[in-house]
Amino acid sequence: MAEEEENQITADEEELYRKLKEKKKLKKKNKIKLEEQQQQEMEMELEEKTQLIEESNEKRKKKKKKNKIIPEEEQHQHQQQEEMDLDEKTELIEEIDEKEKRKKKKKKDKIKLEEEEEMDLDEKTEIIEEINEKEKRKMNKKKKREDTIDEQEEIILREEVIVEEVNARFEVIGEQQGKIAPIVCYYSSGFNPQMKNKNSEDDDGIEIKTFRKKSRVEVVVTPKDYKLDFVGESHSGEPAASQVCCYSLAVFDKESQTLKIVPIAANKILRLEPKFRTPNVYDKEPVKGLNEEDQTPVKKLDATRSLLKSYGTKYANKNALRLDILNRREDAETQKTIDEKTQHVKLNEKALATASGAPSRNIPPHDSTAVTPEKAYPIDRIIFPGEWNSLLDVLELVQSKADIAPSTYPIFVCNRIHKLREIQDEEERKKLACIFSYITHLIKFKDQRSVDRNSSTKNHRIPSILNTKFLSMFADNGNYNPSPEKINLLISYVLVLTLIADGYRTTVVDIAKDLKMPPQKVKDHYSSLGCKIKRESNSMVYTLPTPLEFPQPRMKRRRK
């Protein structure tokens, strides 16, 4: 089949060459004909020109003869006519010359086109020859492959498969003390340094070291010609993964006709990974978490606590804290030092009695034994000394006599701005203005973290010193929406400041609108701060009597 295809290719090539040669011959003949025609046309034109010139000369001679007889006037007329005839002749000659030039240009263009066609034909022939050569090469390669396949098949057929039957017996050998089980390894990178010394008699180019402990095996292959060590470990990496099967090594002894099955070291196939040679490669400790040796219960508890903190849920963290509190053991030495130091300390028994009897309250810092309301809720423990300078926005508006819009400031502040204009003492005016500003920032901070927040709350800018303080006090870690306990604490701060601003006699109407709460809930918050209600005309006024008396929790009655 291959020979027939080659014969067909050669026949097609010969036909193409013949056709190309015939085309070239025809083109040459056409060129010769064109050249002959051009020469004939040139000769005809020259003959016509010579005839015209001869005729003109004869006419001139005849006219000269006549001019001898004709008078002078007539001679003048004849001269003019002759000049006119000469002009016409020159025009004719110029036209003929232009026609000849055009013909020459056309001939040149034709010759160029023919040359270009010849070049295209040559290029086509070259391309065809290249294609034919490639096809020949492919055919030769196919022939070679077919020949090699045939040879291989013949060799396989010639070779006789020899199958030996063996009557062997199995022998399973277990682990023995004082003997090391065989270690099975493989090179992970595919590079085998032992192939270099495969044909050599000595294996001095490679050193193999093994390190064993109770539950781990380590193999180090150190080729001398390389700067790498190939290290395999049973306690880290691939072998440290969970394993279901067991590995063993089988060795067939032809003399005794026995198949010995031996367990391998650590029941794992070690992966030899290339590592840079360092002096501490062999003494490296196992990876944390994979080695279960020498792990005390305390270390395991620490590990579980760290995992719970990073990945555990809130419920799981709460349960872990409760368990820690229950299982906590007090150190005897620390307890002795605490007892020695507290022996000579004087204690306020009344304060202890009230503190032990009352539960922990979600209110601002206070002194329940204070005599005056100013000391019951000290302003310095609510607004710190470094925060007063960042609360001067209300005072600046009052000094500039600008209007305070209720969209930017709470209703409680807008209805009490007139107090700042009435106060003459500058320190008291500054203090009250700062309290108003602090109330606005607290309310805006609460609204920013609520669901129905307005554009005014979004655009409101809280000073950085206050924002960090509010986030630490009234926001849960990592949560944008605070818990109900944090919201109640913020409300209690706002209500204490309203008491201070109104001279410890305030009403609920304005602040309830600002906090977006029903008046009854605001009343409950005031009572939790130790306030009492007084009716004056048609309004309810809240005062702060001292010493503070907080409402006691109601005991639920048991059902009979």
What does this structure look like?
With 560 residues, the protein is of the alpha+beta class. The protein has four domains: 2-59 and 89-145; 169-276; 294-324, no CATH class; 360-543, no CATH class. The chain has helices at 2-69, 72-158, 297-311, 314-327, 332-342, 349-357, 373-376, 393-399, 411-414, 417-422, 426-448, 455-459, 464-474, 484-501, 509-515, 519-528, and strands at residues 169-172, 185-187, 206-212, 217-223, 228-233, 248-253, 258-263, 270-276, 505-506, 532-536, 539-543. The protein has a five-stranded mixed beta sheet with strand order 2-8-5-4-3, with no helix packed on it. Strands 1-7-6 form a three-stranded mixed beta sheet, with no helix packed on it. The chain is flat. The protein starts with a helix and ends in a 17-residue tail after the last strand. Keywords: DNA-directed RNA polymerase, Nucleus, Transcription. Residues 37-92 are annotated as: Disordered. InterPro entries: RNA_pol-assoc_fac_A49-like. This is DNA-directed RNA polymerase I subunit rpa49.
Residue share in helix: 40-55%
Tally of DSSP β-strands: 11
Tally of individual helices = 16
Sequence of strands across the biggest β-sheet: 2-8-5-4-3
What's the gyration radius in Å?
Answer: 58 Å
Query: Which outline best applies?
Result: flat
Alpha-carbon distance between the termini? Answer: 112 Å
Strand content: 5-15%
| Parts with pLDDT < 50 across at least 5 consecutive residues | 281-290, 352-359
**Main sheet properties:** 5 strands, mixed
SSE ordering: HHEEEEEEEEHHHHHHHHHHHHEHHEE
Summed over residues and divided by their number, the pLDDT gives a mean of 77
How many independent structural domains? 4
* Secondary structural class: alpha+beta
